[in-house]
Amino acid sequence: MPRPIQARIHASALRHNLGHVRSVLANAPTPSKTMAVIKANAYGHGIENAISGFQSADGIALLDLEEAARAREAGWEKSILLLEGPFEAADLRAVRELGLTPVIHHESQLEMIDQIGLGSFDVYLKMDTGMTRLGFTASNYEAAFARVEQLRRSGKIGNVTYMTHFASADLTDGLDEPLREFVSMVGGRDGDWCFSNSAACLKHAKRVGALAQLHGHSLWSRPGICLYGGSPLRDQTASELNLRPAMTLRSELISVKDVEAGQGVGYGHTFVADKPMRVGVVACGYADGYPRHAPTDTPVAVNGHMTRLIGRVSMDMITVDLTGVPDTDAVVGTEVVLWGQNGPSADAVAQAAGTISYELLSGVTARVPRELVP
After folding, report:
1. pLDDT (tens digit, 9 = 90+) per residue, 346-370?
2. 3-class secondary-structure state, position 219
3. How far apart are CA 200 and CA 21, in angstroms?
4. Which residues are catalytic, by number?
5. DSSP tag of 355
6. For the chain, give me the number of helices (H) and strands (E)?
7. How many Cβ atoms from other residues are within 10 Å of residue 254's Cβ?
């Protein structure tokens, strides 16, 4: 029989989370179209599963051409944004064939469009407003705009949407300087605006919508982690934000042992029992994507009973404390939820492990089968 670990992807949660974000954006002074971000294999949930759950989105956004091809093969016919744009001129042929809209963030990409001569591309022109990663800055955006206009006149660029990415959208004042910078660069230019990531969608929708209304622009937003049930905000949990977990990483107990006081558990005996206890062994380890650095006391659920990880995470197994779990619920074959529905949230596990839910969800490895459930 196959190893019992599995990632269940809940289609109803994907639909609910997208619907909730869309409702928040719809109540802003300028309602925003929604571009669901499905990069990194849809944050580990599977491109095809995301396409199934995000049918009501106005577009999707991802990074690489292979995932874009999978999205088209899965039946997605609406807009696809290529978030890092082309890496070489030859990529533009695939962009054309797949009907993608590339992000342009560097002058070398404008040169590619000029050289390849495939006809007109709609593009998203990215402004760097403080993230200090990709995008044109205050020192070079005028030259970029001049090149874009030249390419538009020659029929190589069509519609231009102006975008940026917020570095600190989870903070109350995190948009102050980026928005000022953005308006100073693109104010008065024709084209839609594309701003908000998950945090900005849920925290700043009204403010962003009011700014777009003031300047007469249509909006696109790019929610990511919130669509999968993770919180993008430091001070609010996913459940407080009306988000539902879209992935349940579950496995089973494959062994149950009685441990005496003073007996060590796992590599290095980093956990030593201080009293007699029962210990369960779960078929899940860091080769499945569970965080190796998760410490003792990281939450886990055994047949609905909240308990804890003990000892080090191994490649293929973890050990859990069965103290307080009824004997009838602590037998070989009992379900264990590592995170998701009927277990701890991915955010809670990530916090215990000193990381973020984005890393946990996208890090579930290929050897863990995904199953789309209603």
Report:
1. 999 999 999 999 999 999 999 999 9
2. strand
3. 11
4. 39, 267
5. S
6. 12, 18
7. 18
Tokens of 235: 């001070």
One domain, residues 103 and 157 = yes
- In a domain, residue 70? The reply is yes
Tokens 């949990």 map to which residue?
Answer: 237
Letter for the amino acid at 214? L
Question: Does residue 54 sit in the same domain as residue 187?
Answer: yes
The domain total for the chain is: 2
Domain of 333, CATH number, reads 2.40.37.10
Structure tokens at 157: 């660029």
- Sign of torsion, CA 259 274 315 287? positive
Residue 296, Cβ neighbours under 10 Å: how many? 16
Q: What is the pLDDT of residue 184?
A: 94
Residue 294: inside a domain, yes or no? yes
| CB neighbours of residue 159 within 10 Å | 14
Residues 205 and 350 in one domain: no
**Residue 237 maps to a domain:** no
Which H or E run contains 59? strand 59-62
Burial class for 312, CB neighbours closer than 10 Å (0-12, 13-18, 19+):
buried
Both 193 and 302 in one domain: the answer is no
Q: What is the pLDDT of residue 336?
A: 98
Paired sense of beta strands 277-282 and 247-259, if any = antiparallel
Dihedral angle over CA of 139, 143, 149, 152, nearest 10: -100
Extract the residue ranges of the chain whose pLDDT is less than 50. none
Per residue, the 3-state secondary structure of 161-210, as one string, reads: EEECCCCCCCCCCCCHHHHHHHHHHHCCCCCCEECCCHHHHHHCHHHHHH
For tokens 């309602």, the residue is: 31
CB-facing half-sphere around the CA of 153: CA atoms within 13 A: 6
Q: CA quadruple 202, 75, 15, 238: dihedral positive or negative?
A: negative
**Considering Cα of 229, then 234, then 237, then 243, what sign does the dihedral take?**
negative
**Beta-bridge partners for 161:** 124
